[in-house]
Amino acid sequence: MKVFAVPNIATPGRPAVFNPEICNGCNTCVDHCPSDVFIPNPVEGRCPIILHPDECWYCGTCVNDCPCPGAVQFNWPLQQRGYWKRRETGRIFQA
Amino acid sequence: MTTFQEFIGNEGHVPAWPYAIRYDQEQEIETDVLIIGGGIAGCWAAISAARKGAKVALVEKSATVRSGAGGPGCDHWCDTAANPLSKVDPDEWARELTKSFGGYGCGIGREIQCRENYHTLLELEKMGGKIRDDEDRFKGVEGRDDKTKFLISPRMNPFHDTNVVIRVWGTTFKPALKKECGRLGVKIYDRIMATGLLTEKGVQGGRVIGATGLNCRTGEFMVFKSKATILCSSSGGSIWLMNTELAGYNTMSPRAVSGDGIAMAWRAGAEFTLMERSGIMGITPGFKHRWYTGAGDASFENVPLVDGNGKELPIVTEPGWGKKDVDRMGFGWSAIREDVMRGKYALPFYGDFPSMPAIERKVTWNMLLEEECTGKIIVDTYTEAGFDPSKDQLQNYALIEGSSLPQWREANGGGLVVDWDLRTSLEGLYAAGTQLFSPGDHSFAAATGRYAGRKAAVFTRTANQPTASKEQISMEKERIYAPIKRSNGIDWKELHAGIARVMQYFCSEYKTESLFKMGLDSLHEIEEKWAPTLFASDPHKLMRSLEDLSMLTHAQIIIHASRARRASSKFLGFNRIDYPQLDPPEWHKFITVKQENGEIKTGERILDYCGNLKENYEAHNRDYIEEHD
Fold first, then answer.
1. Is the peptide bond before B158 cis (omega within 30 degrees of 0)?
2. What gap in Å lies between CA B578 and CA B601, rounded to an integer?
3. How far apart are CA B609 and CA B73, in angstroms?
4. Residue B27: its pLDDT value, please?
């Protein structure tokens, strides 16, 4: 296994997760993201690269404006995943 | 592959910068009206100026299609006093709004908002923005008018019986505005950061004749020459915020909000007011949930709150509409806290969606929350995870998340002094939205943007196109490219945190002359010693670095303005140790600050410097009134 020397990962580091089976690399998310979190993949047609995850505003534009449903999913940081309670059973869930 | 680390793992190298680097290139654009900032106010200013026949260029640091605090969405069109269902008079409502919060309101902006934001909303509908329940999806919901199909919101308590707030589908707005800009021939320059204003002969205080800019992807230098310029950017979003990484997931302002407009107008010599006003960050210090992730906000409106055992709390998020005996203004949180400590209520609290009438639940969950700002992705996330509002109670984070520290503050409502044309103290420079000393409100931004656009367009009909100062352009170029000429020193994140630390120490909860002096000295030290070592390795980081420099200037303005107000004020979130008396009558006035020949000049204006709102509005807008009545 090749190990590279890279700095620590920015936290939170993965605000969105692409599905390479569905994403056609159209880069709408790259164009619409208010913070310029993504850059286009050097290989045309492939998923964008998340370059500035630490600048994400979590506005959801990348997912909401994506023309290929399912190509990109939002990924909330663990500490921001909210809770709810089913009223009848009292069971607690987390998003 | 999605992340940077995965790319390296797969390819064995870091990705090359994906855009052509053009640090050595320059583009010059000549236009009648230049708009700086393509958020809500900026788009409306562009559309309005273009409709008046002006050639318009719009410069946006981000992407116009979704940029600005209201870019992703908006669920309320506030203070629509002129809508046909309104029970208030627009002029009276504007007066009320201006007088609230101690009279420190922007009367001119409020009058424009109340007189024109309904027209603005109807125009938005024609562009494709959704403002009515045409499909009868929410028939039967309280506040729905079956004739107009408007959904009137109960916001603005205790004045809820006014019908001035309309629920809207704001996720549709920004794409519609951008499309209209395109249709009208507005030239949009996305990913361009405006860096400085150009003034006639390069003189501070002179007529504003354009701006310089930086392409945040390629690094290309831009020169915009204009007859009129409208500043539609915003106040600084993170002046007291040290953490640059954790803030994104809860702040109500996008990253692009960094006070660039404030800084460039300051350098040009424009006059500001209320820059000393700040408030504790209720939701934005970087460790809290966004307000709509668990009731406790107006977007939830009628969602009842219950405690951990299902006991109803004597509080509603937006009191009113059938709810009586509630703390209408204070929301009763201090009493509830005491009851929690006594064991009467159990934590955590929940938004009890299942107890709501089905139609109210539906409009709250499927419209208000989806449409408000960045709420859609939150609603979708919960839904995909299995949350069912008919069965589930959404956790509320009141008390368990704690309160923000008083040192975590935000600049709150300070901005440019304007006249009845929304012209600043500088000829050729207009302002709209939160660039004024104003509320951060969607319909305020829209209506004032639309107003400034038409006034600036009229000015350009007789204004000449002056020649820009080559020296001023060359000095600005040198300033903005300095960080790319260094490969080490201080990076933008460290500088940002350093400035925020100074503000936390010397201009936050404890304000006094000696602390202000230390604050100014510390900021001066940063300016002289650290800012000259700022380095950036690509155009994006250069943009962030320049934002820090805007923040540094903004911080200095705040301290200068704070020194000038030698009294405390509850309305301005402003408490001085050396002048503890709250709101003494002699300090019931606007304090103004500006630069003149590089020197700080402070001044004052009486609170109602705008004069009689109705009379002045009508005197300045005869054509508009004739056209619309």
1. yes
2. 22
3. 34
4. 97
Looking at residue B120, its pLDDT comes to 98
Q: Where are the domains of chain B?
A: 19-124+168-283+411-622, 291-396
The CATH number covering residue A71 comes to 3.30.70.20
Please indicate, yes or no, if residue A84 is contained in any of the structural domains: yes
**Residue in chain A lying closest to B354 (CA):** A87
Is A22 inside any structural domain? Answer: yes
Give chain A's domain count: 1
- Out of B1, B65, B391, whose CB is closest to A86? B391
Q: Report CB contact under 8 Å: B3, A39.
A: no
ipTM rounded to 2 decimals:
0.96
Asked if residue A6 is part of any domain, the answer here is no
Residues 6+ apart with CB under 8 A from B154: B142, B143, B160, B165, B301, B302, B318, B320, B321
Residues making up chain A, counted from first to last: 95
Question: How far off is chain B from A60, nearest CA to CA, in Å?
Answer: 5
pLDDT of residue B621: 98
Tokens representing residue B254 in the block: 């996008």
Q: What is the CATH number of domain B19-124+168-283+411-622?
A: 3.50.50.60
Report residues of chain B scoring pLDDT below 50: 156-159, 284-286, 293, 295, 318-330
So what's the architecture of B291-396 in CATH? Answer: Alpha-Beta Complex (3.90)
Q: What percentage of chain A has pLDDT greater than the value 70?
A: 100
Mind telling me how many Å the CA of A66 is from chain B's nearest CA?
12
CB contact under 8 A, B66 and A35: no
A34 is a domain residue: yes
Q: Structure tokens of B410?
A: 């935000």
The confidence score (pLDDT) of residue B358 equals 96
The answer to whether A42 contacts B1, with C-beta atoms less than 8 Å apart, is no
- Looking at per-residue pLDDT, the higher value among A57 and B219 belongs to B219
State the pLDDT at residue A2.
85
B-contacting residues in A 42-81 (Cβ below 8 Å): 42, 46-61, 63-65, 74, 76-77, 80
Bridge-based pairing state of the strands B26-36 and B56-60 = parallel
B positions 283-322 inside 8 Å of A (CB): 289-290, 293-294, 310
Residue-range definition of the domain harbouring residue A43: 16-94
- Is the separation of the CB atoms in B335 and B344 below 8 Å? no
